Amino acid sequence: IRATLPLPPPQCGPLSCPAGVKNTVRDMRMRKNLAQGQLAEAMGVSRQTINSIENERYTPSLPLALALARYFGVTVEEMFDDQGS
Questions:
Q1: Is the pTM of the predicted complex or chain greater than 0.90?
Q2: Fewest C-beta atoms under 10 Å: which of 5, 34, 46, 81?
Q3: How far apart are CA 63 and CA 76, in angstroms?
Q4: What number of other Cβ atoms are within 10 A of residue 77's Cβ?
């Protein structure tokens, strides 16, 4: 049996790690009475992608962020906040 050392945490840059980007996707989706799957279908992504965005485990690409903002009639800045406030 060979012992393995734990891997070091990934090195994150300002654009490479999703942590810290807050969003209002869930709130806006729920205001429109949409299921995650319905929003995912409208955006052309999986329900898991919407779930990951809502739980702030994934920061969407710029085209997807723009599509979400347009869908809900808000600006990207209104929907996503990289300052964590």
A1: no
A2: 5
A3: 11
A4: 9
